[in-house]
C-alpha cells in the first residue's frame, strides 16, 4: 500500500445516540493516543467510565443550545472535518482560525425511524430529525481522503483493528468503504423522513419518491444463476419471511424469498379463529394447493392432494403452529421451505430429520387489510401501487343467477375467490369443501386457465384413484370477469355448480344467461383481483 494512502488519526469526534459499544471504542482510541471530542450525553458516558474527553462546547467555545438543536454546527467542527490536509490554502485557513483537524467522526443518528414506528406524535417525530449528525457524516464522507466516518457500531472493530495494524493510521480502502456506507445511511434517513412527511400530508404519490432499505442478505444468485441478488429490508416491520426466524436448513435463495412471501401472504387470509387450520403450497409464486381442514394435518393433506406432482419441492405456509402430525406428513416428500407462526417441539424434532428443509417461524400472521405500497421496476422507472388489501368478506356479493347458491357453495365460493386473489392472472380456481381441486394460473386467455384448472381437477381425482373429476360438484372462482361465456361454459362442462367472479363485463348479460342455461349459480363480487 503506498504510504500516502495511510492517514493518521489524531483527533476523533464522537456523537452517538445509540451508545452501545461506546466505552470499548473510547478506551481503544485512548490507547492509540487519539484525542476525543464529544457531545453532551456521549461525553458524559465516556467521562463516567474514566475516559478523558473534551466536550465539543469547550472545543468550539460555543455552548450547546436550543435543546440540542445546535451542538456541532460550528466552523471549528466542520472546518476540522472538511479541510484538505494536502491543500496549503485550507491548512492556512485552519491555522488562521484555530481549527484543529478532526480525523475520525463517529456518529449515529437520532432514532427517527424507530420513533415513527412507535407511533409517536408529529412534534416528537420532528424533534427526532437529526440535523447536526447528518451534516457531520456528510462532511466526513466528502473528505474520505483524510477522514474516517463511522455510522454503524459494527465498524468500530474494523477501524480499531486498522489503527492497531498501521500504527494509528487507516487505509484509503477503509475510508472509502466507510464514506459510501455513510452516504447510504444519510440517504435512507432522509428517505424515511420524506416518506413520513408525505404520509402526514396525505400525499400517497409525492412529486419525488425515495426508497430506503438495509441490506439483510446477499443471495448466492438471483432468479437465475447469472443474476446477482440481495434482499433489503425496509422499516415496514410486516410479519413474514423477512422478519422470521430460520430454525434450520440452508440460506433462503431469491426464489425462496419470493415464493415464501407469496405463500404466507396467502395463508394469512385465513385467520385460524375464523377459518380453523389452513395450508397453502406454493410453486413459482402460484399456489398448487390450498385447503382448510379440521386439523392442520388434514389441511396439509388436502392441499397436497390438489396437485401432488407440482407440490414436490414446494413452499408450505401454515396459519397456525406446526404440530407433529402435520410435520410427519410434510417430511414424506421433498419440500423447500415451511413457514408458520410457530412449531411445537415434537414437530421441530420431526423436521430436524430433514437437514435441508428450511423451517421459518414468524411469531404471527401478517394483517391482510394493512395498507402499504407495492413497487415494481420496469424500463425507465418504478410502478407504485397500493397493496391489494381488500378482503372477500368486504365484497358486496350479488346473486345474479336464477339458481341461488347453497350455504356450502357460498362458503366455497368465498374461499375460492380469496385463493384466486393470490394466483397470477388469468386465475381460475375450483374448490370443493374448503379445498382447491384445480387451479389454472398465468394464462393469457381465461378460457385456457379454465381448461387447465379442469384438467388439474381430473388429474387430482385420478391420482387419488377416483374416476370422476374433482371438479364435479365444485364451485369456481375467476379473478376477473368472464369477457365471454366460453370460460364459464368450460367450468360448467367440468362439473362446477356455482361461479364467483367480479362481473362488470359488457357482456355480463350473456354470461349470466349462459350460467342460467347451464344451471349454475352465479355470484358477482364487484371486486377484481388481477395479479401479475
Ligand atoms: N444539532 C447538532 O448540532 C447535533 N450534533 C450532533 N447531534 C446528534 O446528537 C446525538 C448525540 O447527542 P449526545 O451525545 O448529547 O447524546 C447524535 O445522534 C448526533 O447525531 C446533533 N443533534 C441534532 O441535530
TrEMBL record:
Keyword Transferase recorded: yes
Residues that span the membrane, as ranges: none
EC number in record: 2.1.2.3, 3.5.4.10
One Pfam family, short name: MGS
Database matches in PROSITE patterns: MGS
Residue ranges constituting the MGS-like domain according to the UniProt record: 4-151
InterPro entries for the chain: AICAR_Tfase_dup_dom_sf, Cytidine_deaminase-like, MGS-like_dom, MGS-like_dom_sf, PurH-like
Pathway: Purine metabolism; IMP biosynthesis via de novo pathway; 5-formamido-1-(5-phospho-D-ribosyl)imidazole-4-carboxamide from 5-amino-1-(5-phospho-D-ribosyl)imidazole-4-carboxamide (10-formyl THF route): step 1/1; Purine metabolism; IMP biosynthesis via de novo pathway; IMP from 5-formamido-1-(5-phospho-D-ribosyl)imidazole-4-carboxamide: step 1/1
Keywords: Hydrolase, Multifunctional enzyme, Purine biosynthesis, Transferase
One MF term in the entry's GO annotations: IMP cyclohydrolase activity
Reaction(s) the record says it catalyses: IMP + H2O = 5-formamido-1-(5-phospho-D-ribosyl)imidazole-4-carboxamide; (6R)-10-formyltetrahydrofolate + 5-amino-1-(5-phospho-beta-D-ribosyl)imidazole-4-carboxamide = 5-formamido-1-(5-phospho-D-ribosyl)imidazole-4-carboxamide + (6S)-5,6,7,8-tetrahydrofolate
Family statement: Belongs to the PurH family.
NCBIfam families named in the record: PRK00881.1, purH
HAMAP family: PurH
Note on domains (UniProt): The IMP cyclohydrolase activity resides in the N-terminal region.
Protein name: Bifunctional purine biosynthesis protein PurH
Amino acid at each position: 500500500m503506498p504510504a500516502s494512502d495511510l492517514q493518521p488519526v489524531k483527533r476523533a469526534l464522537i456523537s452517538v445516540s445509540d451508545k452501545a459499544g461506546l466505552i470499548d471504542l473510547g478506551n481503544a482510541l485512548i490507547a492509540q493516543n487519539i484525542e476525543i471530542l464529544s457531545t453532551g450525553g456521549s461525553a458524559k458516558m465516556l467521562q463516567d467510565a474514566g475516559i478523558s474527553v473534551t466536550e465539543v462546547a469547550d472545543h468550539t467555545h460555543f455552548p450547546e443550545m436550543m435543546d440540542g438543536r445546535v451542538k456541532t454546527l460550528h466552523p471549528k467542527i466542520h472546518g476540522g472535518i472538511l479541510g484538505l490536509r494536502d491543500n496549503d490554502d485550507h491548512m492556512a485557513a485552519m491555522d488562521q482560525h484555530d481549527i484543529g483537524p478532526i480525523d475520525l467522526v463517529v456518529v449515529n443518528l437520532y432514532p427517527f425511524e424507530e420513533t415513527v414506528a412507535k407511533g409517536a406524535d408529529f412534534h416528537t417525530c420532528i424533534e427526532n430529525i437529526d440535523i447536526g449528525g447528518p451534516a457531520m457524516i456528510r462532511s466526513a464522507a466528502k473528505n474520505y481522503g483524510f477522514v474516517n466516518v463511522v455510522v454503524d457500531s459494527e465498524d468500530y472493530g474494523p477501524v480499531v483493528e486498522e489503527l492497531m495494524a498501521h500504527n494509528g493510521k487507516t487505509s484509503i480502502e477503509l475510508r472509502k468503504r466507510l464514506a459510501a456506507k455513510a452516504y447510504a445511511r444519510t440517504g435512507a434517513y432522509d428517505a424515511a423522513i420524506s416518506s413520513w412527511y408525505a404520509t402526514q400530508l396525505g400525499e400517497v404519490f409525492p412529486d419525488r419518491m425515495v426508497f430506503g432499505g438495509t441490506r439483510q442478505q446477499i443471495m448466492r444468485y438471483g432468479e437465475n444463476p447469472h443474476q446477482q441478488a440481495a434482499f433489503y429490508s425496509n422499516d415496514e416491520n410486516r410479519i413474514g419471511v423477512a422478519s422470521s426466524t430460520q430454525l434450520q436448513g440452508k440460506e433462503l435463495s431469491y426464489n425462496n424469498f419470493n415464493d415464501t412471501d407469496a405463500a404466507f401472504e396467502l395463508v394469512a387470509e385465513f385467520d385460524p379463529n375464523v377459518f380453523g387450520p389452513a395450508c397453502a403450497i406454493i410453486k413459482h409464486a402460484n399456489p398448487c394447493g390450498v385447503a382448510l381442514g379440521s386439523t392442520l394435518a388434514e389441511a396439509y393433506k388436502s392441499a397436497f392432494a390438489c396437485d401432488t406432482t407440482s407440490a414436490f419441492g414446494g413452499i408450505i405456509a401454515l396459519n397456525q403452529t406446526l404440530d407433529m402430525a402435520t410435520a410427519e406428513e410434510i417430511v414424506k416428500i421433498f419440500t423447500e421451505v415451511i413457514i408458520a407462526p410457530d412449531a411445537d417441539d415434537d414437530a421441530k424434532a420431526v423436521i430436524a430429520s430433514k437437514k435441508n428443509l428450511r423451517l421459518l417461524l414468524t411469531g404471527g400472521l401478517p394483517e391482510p387489510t394493512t395498507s402499504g405500497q407495492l413497487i415494481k421496476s420496469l424500463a425507465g422507472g418504478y410502478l407504485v401501487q397500493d397493496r391489494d388489501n381488500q378482503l372477500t368478506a368486504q365484497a358486496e356479493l350479488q346473486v345474479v343467477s336464477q339458481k341461488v347458491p347453497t350455504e356450502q357453495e357460498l362458503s366455497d365460493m368465498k374461499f375460492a375467490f380469496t385463493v384466486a386473489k393470490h394466483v397470477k392472472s388469468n386465475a381460475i380456481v375450483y374448490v370443493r369443501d374448503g379445498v382447491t381441486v384445480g387451479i389454472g394460473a398465468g394464462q393469457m386467455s381465461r378460457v385456457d386457465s379454465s381448461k387447465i384448472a379442469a384438467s388439474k381437477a381430473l388429474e387430482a381425482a385420478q391420482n387419488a384413484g377416483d374416476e370422476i373429476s374433482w371438479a364435479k360438484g365444485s364451485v369456481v372462482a375467476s379473478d376477473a370477469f368472464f369477457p365471454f361465456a366460453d370460460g364459464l361454459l368450460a367450468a360448467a362442462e367440468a362439473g362446477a355448480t356455482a361461479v364467483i367472479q367480479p362481473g362488470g363485463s359488457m357482456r355480463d348479460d350473456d354470461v349470466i344467461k349462459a350460467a342460467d342455461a347451464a344451471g349454475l349459480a352465479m355470484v358477482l363480487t364487484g371486486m377484481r383481483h388481477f395479479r401479475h
